[in-house]
């Protein structure tokens, strides 16, 4: 085991300590560049194709089809009255379930339960004793992961459809579940630049560094790439300066600085003197003449030394990444002819490829030729040995750090990446009794597919490899630059929407498997900053607010379901409920409702009113109902105006009492009979002198409306 480090510390600590004496934080900036509308990222999980529904009756899929005009229908009499939803995995961010019943005017007795395993259930909402009308938003305080939901219908009022029109299962991006950060390795490469969140050039909003400014926007994790002996890709000449070189000393300086800010640090070993990616994986010059066994030892020693230097300096990496985008292997050797994408210094020096390395021979995957298949397996053996060396060294130097492997998924090439994970995980376990913690990918829509493809990739990994944490190690999108082919415009708003959707895709992965999203070089590549004039100041785009604003801090009861009688203004609540995510408590918050025109409740049906709270909008669908009280009120008005009098009054009153009595009992046929009796009394010629034509016409019209409601309810009952 290596105990000594070759890193020089004399400059590192002094420079970082001097940086940390500068005030690093300021109040939230008020002026970002451009404008982006950013809302908390939330997903109705029923839109995911891996979510399923089951029931012993009806079509349960209709309860999660995002269509309020369809519904799952229960068979209450047969005791088949439950629908169960399987989310495919657990979700800790699932904090609200919207339940909508088919009949907005109906009263429903029901119970909503949740479970993580389908065996042990706990209650989310219980209206077994007293029903609710229309539906409800259920706020969930339990932070344990929920996979299953079960809605059990226990009874409905007369005239209401027994069933559920929609279950909206909302998953929120929460700080506790998703870490956002960036690869900001270029931080020391541009010492004259000042980064800020404000539109001013006299002083930056924090300390002017990329790292500190990105922390200001909401990031909490930084990744730094490591090159062995950085050199010019054209000439091969070593980079003369430490700052901005990406060498181990430069990396340690940045790590110390970030750690001093309280940020988490990730290390990204390229095992090269310059860029390593799917198109080129060139050995460091100092290792090019090593045979395979010596190369394995060099990987171990270098990984151990750099990681141990961080530990000695007081920085415990959050994770150590072994290799960068190594879908095609790493430290390529004499496995095959070079691709031609290598830097010039390697193209012009065949000794880089004289010895064995760790390139994977994908062209022989599934080959029917025994020799080619043997070459494929041998390449995997060599590659796995190199990866194992890096993993063992990282764990030995920093047992508390997680280990990460980073690849890509090219468009329409998911099967290749799945083969990579299968080969690597099995070979590490079987040949070396070793493993790693985090499977990660890059996601650039130009090369890796649509946002829906990213969701597919993450779901496939989480399903096939449930024991591994997932991460998006690189992503970005431009805020300018003409036409876009990514599905997002090249604008500040498009950049914000893209970042929100990547966060959402990661957060929506089953079992909260995807824990981290890293933006690649947000200050330089497809930049999230815009230069202020010709100055050295670079202002954060408004899109960077996404790293604060996409997280939900409060979850609002945003839908209320109310009823009112025909011609009666609805009673609207003065408060609605709000879940405070930080305290995990439900509180009441004041709501101010928009004015309601009398015409809205002057006809049967429904209408919606909007309310405003300090935490967002609330909508209240309101069902306008017809019942005996409407006729009673009309009769009272006609009695007061002397348009209704004499013996007709008790005749009509008694008929209505009988209607109400039988309706309440559920005897709809008898209720219909007494409405008919009511109409007979109204139309009897001998009562002409006791009622005006206007009163007779009005009461008869509303009695027929009541009769129509009763007939509907009776048909549903059958």
Explained architecture:
The protein has 718 residues and is α/β, with parallel strands linked by helices. Among the domains are: 34-174, Jelly Rolls; 555-595 and 602-625, no CATH class; 628-717. Strands 13-15-16-17-20-21-22-23 form an eight-stranded parallel β-barrel, surrounded by five helices. Helix 1 runs parallel beside helix 3, helix 12 (628-640) runs antiparallel to helix 13 (648-665) and helix 13 (648-665) packs antiparallel against helix 14. The protein starts with 9 loop residues before the first helix and ends with a helix.
Secondary structure layout:
Layout: H1 10-20, E1 42-44, E2 52-54, E3 72-73, E4 82-91, E5 94-100, E6 107-115, E7 121-126, E8 132-133, E9 135-139, E10 146-156, E11 163-164, E12 166-172, E13 179-183, E14 194-196, H2 210-217, E15 221-226, H3 248-260, E16 264-269, H4 292-313, E17 319-322, E18 329-330, H5 344-347, E19 358-359, H6 370-397, E20 402-408, H7 414-432, E21 438-443, H8 445-448, H9 451-464, E22 469-475, H10 492-507, E23 514-520, E24 529-531, E25 537-540, H11 546-549, E26 554-556, E27 562-565, E28 575-580, E29 585-590, E30 592-593, E31 605-613, E32 616-625, H12 628-640, H13 648-665, H14 668-683, H15 693-717
Parallel strand pairs: 13-15, 13-23, 14-25, 15-16, 16-17, 17-20, 20-21, 21-22, 22-23, 27-32
Antiparallel strand pairs: 1-12, 2-4, 3-11, 4-10, 5-9, 5-12, 6-7, 6-8, 6-10, 18-19, 24-25, 26-28, 28-29, 30-31, 31-32
């Amino acid at each position: 085991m290596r105990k000594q480090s070759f890193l020089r510390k004399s400059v590192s600590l002094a420079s970082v300590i001097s940086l940390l004496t500068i005030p690093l934080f300021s109040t939230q900036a008020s002026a970002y560049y451009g404008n982006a509308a950013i809302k908390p990222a939330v997903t109705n999980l029923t839109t995911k194709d891996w979510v399923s529904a089951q029931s012993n009756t009806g079509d349960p899929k209709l309860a999660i089809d995002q269509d309020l005009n369809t519904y799952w229908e229960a068979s209450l009499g047969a005791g088949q009255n439950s629908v169960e939803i399987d989310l495919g995995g657990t979700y800790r961010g699932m904090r609200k379930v919207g339940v909508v019943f088919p009949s907005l005017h109906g009263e429903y007795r029901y119970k909503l339960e949740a479970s993580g395993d389908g065996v042990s259930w706990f209650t989310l909402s219980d209206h077994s004793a007293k029903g609710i009308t229309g539906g409800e938003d259920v706020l969930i305080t339990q932070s344990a992961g929920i996979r299953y939901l079960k809605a059990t219908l226990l009874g409905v009022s007369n005239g209401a459809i027994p069933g559920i029109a929609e279950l909206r299962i909302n998953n929120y991006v929460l700080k506790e579940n998703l870490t956002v950060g960036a690869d900001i390795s270029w931080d020391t490469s541009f010492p004259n630049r000042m980064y800020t969140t404000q539109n001013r050039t006299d002083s930056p909003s924090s300390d002017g560094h990329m790292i500190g400014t990105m922390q200001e926007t909401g990031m909490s994790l930084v990744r730094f790439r490591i090159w062995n002996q950085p050199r010019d890709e054209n000439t091969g000449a070593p980079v003369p300066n430490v700052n901005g070189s990406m060498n181990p000393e430069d990396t340690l300086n940045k790590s110390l600085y970030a750690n001093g800010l309280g940020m988490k640090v990730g290390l990204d070993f390229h095992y090269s003197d310059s860029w390593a990616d799917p198109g080129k994986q060139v050995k460091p010059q100092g290792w090019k003449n090593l045979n395979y066994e010596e190369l394995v030892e060099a990987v171990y020693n270098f990984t151990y030394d750099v990681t141990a230097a961080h530990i000695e300096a007081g920085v415990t990496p959050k994770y150590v990444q072994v290799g960068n985008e190594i879908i095609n292997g790493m430290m390529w050797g004499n496995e095959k002819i070079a691709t031609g994408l290598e830097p010039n210094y390697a193209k012009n020096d065949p000794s880089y490829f004289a010895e064995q390395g760790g390139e994977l021979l994908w062209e022989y995957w599934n080959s029917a030729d025994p020799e080619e298949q043997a070459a494929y397996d041998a390449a995997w053996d060599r590659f796995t040995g190199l990866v194992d060396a890096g993993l063992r060294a990282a764990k030995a130097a920093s047992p508390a750090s997680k280990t990460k492997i980073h690849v890509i998924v090219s468009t329409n090439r998911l099967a290749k990446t799945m083969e990579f994970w299968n080969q690597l995980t099995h070979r590490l376990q079987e040949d070396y009794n070793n493993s790693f913690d985090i499977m990660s990918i890059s996601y650039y829509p130009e090369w890796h597919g649509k946002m829906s493809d990213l969701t597919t990739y993450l779901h496939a990994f989480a399903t096939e490899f449930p024991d591994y944490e997932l991460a998006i190690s690189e992503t970005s999108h431009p805020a300018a630059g003409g036409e876009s082919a990514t599905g997002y415009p090249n604008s500040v708003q498009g950049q914000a929407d893209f970042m929100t959707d990547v966060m959402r895709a990661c957060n929506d992965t089953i079992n909260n498997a995807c824990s981290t999203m890293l933006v690649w070089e947000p200050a330089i590549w497809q930049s999230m900053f815009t230069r202020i004039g010709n100055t050295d100041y670079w202002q954060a785009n408004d899109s960077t607010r996404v790293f604060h604003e996409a997280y939900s801090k409060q979850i609002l009861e945003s839908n209320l379901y109310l009823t009112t009688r025909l011609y009666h203004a609805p009673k609207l609540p003065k408060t609605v409920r709000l879940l405070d995510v930080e305290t995990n408590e439900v509180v009441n918050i004041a709501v101010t409702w928009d004015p309601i025109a009398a015409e809205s409740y002057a006809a049967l049906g429904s209408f919606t009113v909007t309310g405003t709270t300090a935490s967002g909008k609330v909508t209240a669908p309101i069902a306008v109902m017809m019942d005996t009280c409407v006729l009673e009120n009309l009769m009272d008005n006609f009695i007061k105006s002397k348009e209704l009098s004499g013996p007709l009054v008790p005749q009509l009153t008694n008929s209505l009492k009988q209607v109400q009595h039988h309706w309440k009992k559920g005897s709809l046929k008898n209720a219909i009979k007494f409405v008919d009796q009511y109409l007979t009394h109204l139309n009897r010629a001998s009562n002409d002198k006791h009622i005006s034509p206007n009163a007779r016409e009005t009461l008869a019209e509303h009695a027929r409306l009541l009769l129509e409601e009763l007939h509907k309810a009776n048909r549903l009952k059958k």
